[in-house]
């Protein structure tokens, strides 16, 4: 298990943690560390690997949130927003968001605010140019097209994860088009503003792009 914190330009203790879900241990032990609802959701996955990863992600999330709140992991309960964003029930002082991609998971925690995180592993993407055309802004499309081929996968995943993190922080689901959110395609910190059904939303977006297996981005306000 590894983790990272924001650079000191932001003083609040926002933390980004990540883990390898395939190294989490036996499935039966994982199932005992999550709720009945989480086990039921895991049982709906098509393969044993996907089921095990779902259990591992939620057991790990409960462990980290238990440390953040001082509560027993299995005592934690969750509410779900209108577009699916979870929040801790009865613990308003801790904000969190979970993301996983294949065997890797990332968890963002903060003492307050709205937070979203997204992790994507590097993998061959035959439709990358098409996705960029449909989901990037005009400026981002131009930035993407100007890059050498070898740099495009990293840039695409930076843009994609930053947009996903923004939408998750806002809790708006797919009510906002990714092409309406200008995040850029670099790992540089950026203040991003966009409209949601609940009104304007502004967050600071950052990324961890120094891993060789995945990109992690988060948005927080």
Automatic annotation (TrEMBL):
4'-phosphopantetheinyl transferase domain boundaries: 115-184
Signal peptide positions (record): none
Molecular functions per Gene Ontology: holo-[acyl-carrier-protein] synthase activity; magnesium ion binding
BP terms from Gene Ontology: lysine biosynthetic process via aminoadipic acid
Cellular-component GO terms for this entry: cytosol
Keywords: Transferase
Protein family membership: Belongs to the P-Pant transferase superfamily. Gsp/Sfp/HetI/AcpT family.
Protein name: 4'-phosphopantetheinyl transferase domain-containing protein
Keyword Transferase carried by entry: yes
Domain of life the protein comes from: Bacteria
Keyword Transferase: yes
